[in-house]
Amino acid sequence: MAISEIPECIGPYRVLSVVGEGGMGVVYKAEDQRLERVVALKVIREFEGDTNRRRRFWQEARAAAQVAHPNACRIYDITEEQDRLVLVMEFIEGDSLARRLERGSLPAQEAGQIALSVLSALEAFHKIGIVHRDLKPSNIVLSSGGTKLLDFGIAKHVALNANDETAATLGDATAAGIFLGTPKYASPEQFRNRPVDARSDLFSLGVVLFEMLTGQPPFSGETFGEVAHAVLEGSPPALSGSPAIAAMGRIVHRSLSREPQDRYASAEAMGADLRATLQMDGIETNARARPLRRMIVLPFRMLRPSEEIQFLAYSLPEAITVSLAGLENLVVRSSIVAARYSGDAPDLQKIAREAEVDVVLTGALLNVGTQLRITTQLAEAPSGTLLWSHSSQATTHELLELHDDLVRRVVESILPSLTVQEHQSLQKDRPASPTVYQIFLQANEFGRQWENLPGAIEMYERCVSLDPSYAPAWARLGRARWLCDKYTVGSLEGLGAADEAFQTALRLNPNLTLAHNLYTHVQIDQGRSLEALKRLLGRAQQRRSDGELFAGLGHVCRYCGLLRPALIAHQEARRLDPLIPTSVMHTYFMLGDYERALENSGGDYGYGTALVLGMTGRVEEAVTMLRQRELDKPWRLGKLYLTSLRTLLEGKHKESLAVSEELMQATFRDPEGMYYLGRQLAYLRHEAQALETLSRAIDNGFFCHQAMLHDPWLDSLRTRTEFTALLSKAHQLHREALTAFLAGGGASLLGIHSEGY
Description:
The protein has four domains: 91 residues, Phosphorylase Kinase, domain 1 (2-Layer Sandwich), CATH 3.30.200; 198 residues, Transferase(Phosphotransferase) domain 1 (Transferase(Phosphotransferase), domain 1); 223 residues, Rossmann fold (3-Layer(aba) Sandwich), CATH 3.40.50; 188 residues, Serine Threonine Protein Phosphatase 5, Tetratricopeptide repeat, CATH 1.25.40. Helix 3 packs antiparallel against helix 5 and helix 9 crosses helix 12. The longest helix has 23 residues. Strand 8 and strand 9 form a beta hairpin. By secondary structure, the chain is of the alpha+beta class. It is globular, with a radius of gyration of 30 Å.
């Protein structure tokens, strides 16, 4: 039925005009002569001769017609005319969101309100099992009566070789050669031809919300293949602006998670976060899309074994990583993440997928007599497109020049411009001489192995004696002193020496990212959790793209009993760097969510994983793992913790108590470790020692009130007045931490808007 053949009537409906025509059919404005109301008629011509698809369409349209929602276009009737299906729908006057976006982006408040209306409609339909599958701006109408979502539950399709692939609307997932959805707004599972559920619609709405906020789509591409590649491999730009914009950016990026399980579980959950964001400061402003480059510097390969230059394989890439870490529009994966991909032939597709990076720096080292030959390549991932390749030859005394040259080449290749502050950042923290830099790199290599830490400390101390103003060496010295002392002696002197080194580093350079990220653990062991919280909040406000900062913030929030912020900080860290190590396993443990704790136990030295296994009834598995870890770990205090738990789980309570008492006499400083020991003692029914240890944990900066309220291993203490007093003290400290968290802008930073901290 072409537009030139406009019928006078379709059944009892008098046709007034043509609204539009597309691949699926034609839409008319018509009058229902019986009820004297204006309606829209969609005449479907897609299903001629296809009985099965016609039947499925009837089923979905009937289901959708059962829902009456103020933000969804109502289906009044389904009929047939000349063997064609006709949908009789509410006629809505107004412009589509697509038409509005032609004029540019929307203020965040307006965009948020539109998204909330759409979510409200989605929630109603999702509850009866209907998924839209084709949510896009042209299906959203801005009418005088509010925002209306069209075409709910109606799949559409055209062939994949359609001329305008990015605008094509496609529909039946089971048919060959067609695609479900509109590519520009489709979810990854639609591109993968996998089953979709409500979370697919939330992804599509995330795309629409991003476009409303910025005036541009989060995933670019001119062809179907280019869009598919961007959705399946790329990362959307970050949103910057006011606290409200930052919070809305986190909502957008969560909804755009590649895997459905990482998105919001429901429209209701997404709506709750969005609704709260609309109450935040700066919601009336506009967002800015800030393209971020995501980079990883892989360990350099040794083309021929050489003890003289072996230390450079990891330490030189790590030094380059640290230098680039201060640039705002560049997110550099940590050297811990990069170490996972050491090998002869890096798989750029795998690295791009797992580490979510788009640029990879690789290098190869060769010792040629007294000269060092270094070949480096900067390539885009996952395509492998070479941005540049560079070879140079120098002595080890010229390493500093090599480092500076590589950093300069990277910056010039992938960042269009730098601020004055960023230029200054790249010039800051230079060692006084090539000798100092060479010793620093050698110390970094030693510091990678726990047993070599004493040697690393000597080298760092030599660095700072030769160059007392070299802040990175002071920061690394602080970490090495802390780590070497913590699990062996646990002395106040060792902790004080570590703190002195960090304080010196931060005095020399208050903005040294390396020092801020490493200092948190020392402050915690000193019982200064609240100070660490305030420092990290201030730093994170300035460095919102630093995953390590958010990982540290999540860690210290747990110590302060702020479990919800701890989880959200972890999520933000993983959004920025999907492979970054965090301590979220312990946060889930404190929440009593043992399954999630186990899912996140990678990187744990053994105690936490075994504890979770024990709590879920997998005692034999826990004991076997602990026995192996006791053999593997050289740390005296760490091994005592493993032994104390193993013997407890084996039922050897006297032996466990003996080891626990040895730990109590030690000077181990981590207050969370004290809490774990205290709950063990309570389980063993040694209540006096348990109360004393828990009191030490609280006094030393671990006051996780929620965990103490619900931990089943503390049940033997609940009738003791001393325990009630400890709960009261932990609660008071938690409230003080919450006050500091709110005063430091933590709620805005993490997008937390309701009670339940």
